[in-house]
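Tip: read the tokens left to right.
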């Protein structure tokens, strides 16, 4: 564990040196503050708290922005070190390849977790100062931050898997962008088209459940927009939640598997890779 911790701290120091942490935190803070102030405008008409509006808005922002940041942070974590020749030097120390991958992953995950907590925390403080939230909305906001960190971890793990599969940084970057487009944009549009074309003839609730769990972004969307009754009604996701019938523990377990399985595959592939 000590070696893994040292590697994680090294990744965090590298992130600070490259100003990744500052840039990500600033970006998330700007977007979250914008949504917190502008998104609270319709609350007087629909009778929801400003914090509930902020949770729904930040959920949509997270789905588009956080996976992209996570993939950009992690896509060259392995292949980049190999190209620069620093991986061979690192492996001369008494550390195994799985420990290298796990240590680097923890470092990147902590960077993204810090940026997410600080960036979204700014929006929470702003809403708190205006008195715009009730207990239910605050629980949803806390769950949003926690699951955002988990979603970021899932896409960091996917980025590590891509980095362990390829031999070139350019290829890894292209695949990372393709993965983002697939999970964030293409997958849901294709699923919606299938649902419209099927008209309920073949695609039953059980199959829909599996299709939703095959995308970590969908699991994140459901757990945040359907887990709390007030948020669910306002977000317009209550109908899908009733059809899918996926409980928060199932959704959180699926998101956790999206962290463990790609990371385990990356560790296995890198252990067998010739430098």
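Filled-in amino acids:
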């Amino acid at each position: 564990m000590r070696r893994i911790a040292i590697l994680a701290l090294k990744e965090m120091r590298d992130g600070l040196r490259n100003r990744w942490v500052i840039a990500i935190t600033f970006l998330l803070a700007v977007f979250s503050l914008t949504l917190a102030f502008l998104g609270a405008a319709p609350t007087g008409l629909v009778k929801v708290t400003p914090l509930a509006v902020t949770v729904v808005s930040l959920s949509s922002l997270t789905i588009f922005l956080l996976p992209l940041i996570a993939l950009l942070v992690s896509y060259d974590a392995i292949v980049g070190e190999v190209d620069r020749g620093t991986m061979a030097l690192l492996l001369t120390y008494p550390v195994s390849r799985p420990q290298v991958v796990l240590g680097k992953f923890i470092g990147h995950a902590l960077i993204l977790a810090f940026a997410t907590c600080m960036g979204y925390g700014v929006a929470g403080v702003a809403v708190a100062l205006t008195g715009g939230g009730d207990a239910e909305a605050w629980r949803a906001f806390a769950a949003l931050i926690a699951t955002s960190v988990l979603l970021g971890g899932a896409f960091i793990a996917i980025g590590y898997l891509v980095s362990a599969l390829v031999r070139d940084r350019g290829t890894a970057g292209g695949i990372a962008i393709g993965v983002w487009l697939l999970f964030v944009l293409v997958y849901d549009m294709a699923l919606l088209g299938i649902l419209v074309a099927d008209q309920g003839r073949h695609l039953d609730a059980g199959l829909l459940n599996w299709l939703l769990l095959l995308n970590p972004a969908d699991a994140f969307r459901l757990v945040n927009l359907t887990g709390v009754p007030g948020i669910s009604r306002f977000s317009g996701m209550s109908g899908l939640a009733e059809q899918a019938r996926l409980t928060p523990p199932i959704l959180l377990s699926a998101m956790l598997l999206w962290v463990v399985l790609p990371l385990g595959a990356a560790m296995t592939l890198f252990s067998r890779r010739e430098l």
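The chain has one domain: 2-271. The mean pLDDT is 84.
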